[in-house]
Write a structure and sequence with these properties.
The protein is mainly α. It contains one helix and no strands.
Length: 35
């Protein structure tokens, strides 16, 4: 979450993108593992 305190749009977008990527990774792994 580093950089959010600065209110930078770029850091906010990077954080959202990172969280979205991690979320999608978990969904894909769970789907492939059938669980």
């Amino acid at each position: 979450m580093c950089g959010l305190s600065r209110g930078s749009v770029r850091s906010l977008a990077a954080t959202v993108t990172f969280m979205a990527a991690g979320f999608l990774t978990v969904l894909v792994q769970r789907h492939w593992l059938g669980g």
